[in-house]
């Protein structure tokens, strides 16, 4: 969402100063406060005129008649889109923390994501949200065919998330209607090695649509059986695509952010986080994936959030990728009175780190 409003350089400065002061204090901002803190050589009347224009433009408002001004959702939007630059130093700090405290080669995917969420919430003071990778987009790490008896084998698939799936597969019989167990074991092992060489690094979706004539004549009699079994695993994964969201920092944000002091508001947010994750997952993953602005990070402010429980919040998200495919999302949920330049930098750095970790898992 973009707000189109024409502001003079002075009005931009006053809007930026008002937002920064309100973020720092959580109190309505008066012209005297801006003069004292930002513009000691500018008269209060000049600042008041600029604030009056910003209020008429819908970028500031007065919560009470005698109070100072507070940024509106539109004011925050202009601030985010035009008046800030994400903190490069904080981005480097996040990357260093993630790199030194988490090791993709030693941790399972879920442990890695939980660690990233904890670091993100601790640094930001907000709620960190990290979605588990999409099973349908997960890539094959290892495949094994194990003989059960003369008529069937078990196809075991290990994905790069270390999730294991299996299904039973019928076995072809010899020309005389019998199969030698030792010969079949050797044949299955050769086929296992061949399939790993051909399929490792491909997603279940991709494997299900491969041209199986590429398997070659040696394994022609297995091709339809293996293809059907892998297609079944892909079908199951599509029916059970993970919408689990790893959440960290709820207690911290309740303690540190005054906006979350109202019990009723907190209860609706907690219900969304605990019981309605499918709705939240669609928002933080699909909206980021489909965003066509060209920006890496998606920022939703206040009423821009379609879910009622978080319409007083800001949600900053970015997808992490495997290759060029978005497989999950990382984000921060906090009050609209958020340090956006820091939140954007942290989310982008975390998304970049998780993307690198996803791609390292197959190397």
UniProtKB/TrEMBL annotation:
Q: Which InterPro entries match?
A: GAF-like_dom_sf, HrcA, HrcA_C, WH-like_DNA-bd_sf, WH_DNA-bd_sf, WHTH_transcript_rep_HrcA_IDD
Per the UniProt entry, what are the Gene Ontology biological process annotations, in alphabetical order? negative regulation of DNA-templated transcription
Please provide the record's keywords in A-Z order: Repressor, Stress response, Transcription, Transcription regulation
- Keyword Cell wall biogenesis/degradation set for record: no
Q: Which GO terms describe its molecular function?
A: DNA binding
**Short name of any one Pfam family annotated for the protein:** HrcA
Q: Which domain of life is it from?
A: Bacteria
Checking SUPFAM superfamilies in the record gives: GAF domain-like, Winged helix' DNA-binding domain
Location of the Heat-inducible transcription repressor HrcA C-terminal domain: 110-344
Q: Which family does it belong to?
A: Belongs to the HrcA family.
Q: What does this protein do?
A: Negative regulator of class I heat shock genes (grpE-dnaK-dnaJ and groELS operons). Prevents heat-shock induction of these operons.
Record's protein name:
Heat-inducible transcription repressor HrcA
